[in-house]
Amino acid sequence: MDRTFVMIKPDGIQRGLVGEIISRFEAKGLKLSASRFENLPDTRVTEQYKEHLAKPFFPSLKQYIMGGPCFLMVWEGRNVVSIARKLIGATNPAEALPGTIRGDFGIDIGRNVIHGSDSPESAIREIAIHFGQNELVSYTRIDEAVIYEY
Ligand code: IDP
Ligand code: MG
Question: Which of 42, 107, 109, 113 is the 20 to 30 Å CA partner of 101?
């Protein structure tokens, strides 16, 4: 099964969206394999967003992500990386489609509620930044038998 890294950002926590967001992933048929609620240290925020280090918005992005606790998750499922990105919606919530998390709950690009890995390679990299192998829980969800055709 594929895995992806998803993180509810501090604005999502403050606005009480954790349960709503987890529900959407669960209802889709994806499987939670790890989670942690924490204040992210500078080092992991920088590592997570290192592709954006030289961008003008990097300092404000870092301040945003370190502005309060985040809820970190690993989700599992066939093609979960692209499925999660679709559930999350476009980077700019003003342009994200209704029905997506950012489309339903956000307005500003700098307060877009949630992060999701953009490729299977990024997912592997990001999961390793935040979670140890021993934190990834392996189990079968009973409805997998009817969610997947094979
Ligand atoms: P993504 O989160 O949809 O993958 P990226 O382009 O990888 O989007 O940007 C990472 C994060 O940086 C975004 O989710 C958003 O929080 C922030 N960000 C991206 N572009 C801007 C911008 O132009 N202004 C402010 N923040 C931005
Ligand atoms: Mg990205």
Answer: 42
